[in-house]
Amino acid sequence: MRVKQELMLSRQRILRAMFTGATAMYAMVVAPAPVMAATAVSAHQLPSAWMTLPFFVLLLMIATGPLLYPGFWEHQYRRVSVLLGAAVCAYYAFVLDGAMPLLRHTLEEYLSFIALVTALFVVTGGIMIRIDRNGSPFLNLLLLVFGALISNVVGTTGASMLLIRPFMKINEGRLKPFHIVFFIFIVSNIGGALTPIGDPPLLLGFLRGVPFFWVFTHLWLPWVLTVAALCLIFVLLDLRAGKGEVDADRSGRIELKGKRNFLYLIPLVASIFLDPAVIHGFPSLQELLYLPFGIREVVMASIALVAWRTSDREAMQANEFDFEPIREVAYLFGGIFATMIPALELSGAWAMEHSRELTVSHFYWAAGLLSGVLDNAPTYLNFLSGALGKFGLNAGNASQVALFARGMPPVVPGDLPSTDYLMAVSIASVFFGALTYIGNAPNFMVRNIAARAGAGIPDFMGYILRYSLPVLVPVFAMIWIVLFNH
Fold first, then answer.
1. Residue 41 has what pLDDT?
2. Spatial contact of 303 and 269, defined as CB atoms under 8 Å apart
3. How far apart are CA 448 and CA 461, in angstroms?
């Protein structure tokens, strides 16, 4: 009886925390806040809550377009994304005073984001891994764990592009929607939580002052628990899927083509650190020449061009390489980056204003739920700013961010130290990015590649209702109970 009561109490705590997190998220996004936005780039009056409408319209069309009006969406998604993004940019440029620096900063973040994603897409597109074996629960498990590990070295984008085609190939004749979904869960999102290279939110934290090895030393336990839980669920589903129509003529060999492209990964990963925030005194093109990109982005674009020109054509042909997946990501995330500016400003201002009232559970659930529908990198920055503000620190000061990461005592008696808040924001931003196709860029790229290959993948709402809610949310609740429900 006592165990049953404790289970009921834990369930009530989870629901209460999710409700308060969702309530906080709702208030952050839609509640008008008559305060000034305090960011690292500008200070101006907050936008009207009505300006979040283009963002929600774009999300709604991304969710319903491929299902309800596929012909229109396939041919017009570029125009829709550009028009909605342009409407928000025009509002910031001509209606709000002093908002131009924020637009410029958003453009810089977008160019940095798309430069890295494109370079990883092109470089890994020239590497062909051919596994001439039939898929099995054990082999699939090995590939997923391998992908989760290497995503911390080549990023979730690189690992996803490198392994998604071999993963689909070995499972020909038995490929089910859950294969693609769990690949997105483990390889495209949660796997990259051990280093700042793994996922964009952690990279932004590193550039802001979070020590490089802080990520591994503090996130390895939730990483192990989450990956292990998802792998167990996957294996149970894969065992039920059976053998399907397997190919009896496969030799069992593993072949690797395009080895030269592994050399491109070395300068590509190294270029991530070419930033004045990391290397003191490193030249900034943004300040010297007033450009919306830096040396890092120039290096990434150059590597992408060289890789495209010199990659093994046979490997690229075997990978069915073309630029349509990255083109769709560029247009849609361009629209998302532009239209989400008001939503992020309102959420960030609300978090800063109410930070002393918010607990680590609020930060975990609110940052996580927003990361599932907003791009998780800027969401991470807003909640990092809110958490630092709770402890009286400034997210624009690298030494204060480092102090926050090392650990500060609780502000309120009985509360948790600053390290727990940074863990909550980091875990939520990376893990919850798997909740939807748009939570993280690799999700959308994997979905596009799988769809073009004819794999049966769930639509936007099917992904959420059939997989995210019944699989991910209970696992994330388990992580919350273990780490933060003190």
1. 44
2. no
3. 16
Helices vs. strands in the chain: H and E counts, helices first:
20, 4
Mean pLDDT of the residues in the chain: 83
How far is residue 193's CA from residue 201's CA, in Å, rounded to a whole number? 9
pLDDT confidence of residue 7: 45
| Mean pLDDT across 47-62 | 88
Strand-strand pairing, 43-45 and 36-38:
antiparallel
Domain ranges of the chain: 15-483
Q: What H or E segment, with its residue span, contains residue 38? A: strand 36-38
Rounded Cα gap, residues 177 and 458, in angstroms = 6
Segment 107-128 mean pLDDT: 87
Please state, in angstroms and rounded to a whole number, the distance separating the CA atoms of residues 230 and 185. 8
Q: pLDDT of 59-83, one tens digit each?
A: 788 877 877 888 898 889 999 999 9
> What are the residues facing 129 on neighbouring strands?
256
Segment 122-148 mean pLDDT: 89
Number of other residues whose CB lies within 10 A of the CB of residue 295: 16
Which helix H or strand E contains 84, and what residues bound it? helix 70-94
- Cα 124 to Cα 165: distance, rounded to the nearest angstrom: 11
Cα(486)–Cα(17) distance, integer angstroms? 12
Neighbours of 310 (CB within 10 A): 13
